[in-house]
Amino acid sequence: MKLSPTKTIVALETRMPKYILGDSQELLKEMQNESVDCVYMDPPFNSDAKYRLNPDSELGFDDVFSSNLEYTNLVEPIVHECKRLLKKNGSLFFHISANEMAVPLVICEKHFKKVQPIFWKRSRSKNNVKTKLGSTIDVILWCSNVKKPKFNMTYQPLDEYYAKNSYKNKDSRGNYALGHIVYTATQRTKNKDRLYSLNHDDKAYEPENGWRLSKQDLLGLIDDDRVHFPTKEGANPYKKIYKHESLGKPCTDLWDDIHSIAQGTESRRYPTQKPVSLLKRIIKLTTDEGDVILDPVAGSGTTGVAAKLLNRDFILIDKNPDAIEICKKRIKEET
Ligand SMILES: C[S@@+](CC[C@H](N)C(=O)[O-])C[C@H]1O[C@@H](n2cnc3c(N)ncnc32)[C@H](O)[C@@H]1O
């Protein structure tokens, strides 16, 4: 029996199906407005290739379109419906190769107020490329309809060069780098409370552009031996930033610390499978425990694996029955 649209919506709501076999262009229409917190979509890229798990396998999908218009006709209705399904402070991530990003960028900018590209360096150099530049970058377009979508501070490992060269000072706690606690001329503070003088070891410090922290906070750091006073005459003090306490660097728009499946340890179940760590970063960045993540072109279900490991709910849709079976198997085996 075919359900009427209203009945289907109710059925989807109450059961919250995790795996749905079918065409997202149709299925998404049956879901309720503002019902998901985050969408990750990694559709075919329009790369003119047929992806199979290996040369002897049928498992995979064709990424062949006769024109950019035909490609637009696949992805734009999905983006349009996903936008409707997203909660106000939600985010949609559109994953595409750098070579093919032009069409999705136009679509995302048409439907969303804010689009920020994230550059994922998915592989190192390509030694087999002789007549063109090796392609190593995927772009993940982070789309939202508010200035400040839900955001959780996330960290990346420190750059090797910075880590090696910055933690050169040492005290009984360990190695530390120097963090600025006074403003430079271009940053000069207008806050009069930050223009104070400090006496320490018979020396007076009164930076002309002001301090970055209150006198009370500064005295607290000094009490805890977390301020570095240089011996050089006239030099300003710094905050000690200990290497062993560092969480890493606040996440940037260049993700060069996550390896592709080919370079990592995960086993490949589907030709264009993405690493779980990539999805974990996206999910941690923009959702909280209990939130709902939707992947309308789920492939092997990497989004579901990452969501479950992070205690989020998930909905995976794919039109390929093999893909849906792999999603179910992976969630069972990997979470
Ligand atoms: C690049 S793969 C996704 C890979 C996935 N991110 C992973 O980690 O395994 C794209 C998937 O989109 C599916 N697909 C393409 N058009 C679709 C549509 N209209 N509705 C649902 N799924 C679709 C394909 O079957 C394919 O599995």
Can you tell me about this structure?
This protein is α/β, with parallel strands linked by helices. The protein has two domains: 5-156 and 249-334, Rossmann fold, CATH 3.40.50; 165-245, no CATH class. Helix content is 27%, strand content 25%. It contains nine helices and 18 strands. It has helices spanning 5-15, 24-27, 68-85, 102-111, 160-166, 215-223, 276-286, 302-309, 321-334; strands at 19-21, 36-41, 49-52, 60-63, 86-97, 114-121, 137-144, 155-156, 169-171, 174-180, 198-200, 203-205, 227-228, 238-242, 249-250, 254-255, 292-295, 313-318. The strands form five sheets. The protein has an eight-stranded mixed β-sheet with strand order 1-18-17-2-5-7-6-16. Strand 17, helix 8 and strand 18 (313-318) form a beta-alpha-beta unit. Helix 3 (68-85) runs parallel beside helix 4, helix 7 crosses helix 8 and helix 8 runs parallel beside helix 9. The longest helix has 18 residues, at 68-85. It is elongated. The chain starts with a helix and ends with a helix. Mean pLDDT is 92; it is low at 1-14. The structure holds S-adenosylmethionine.
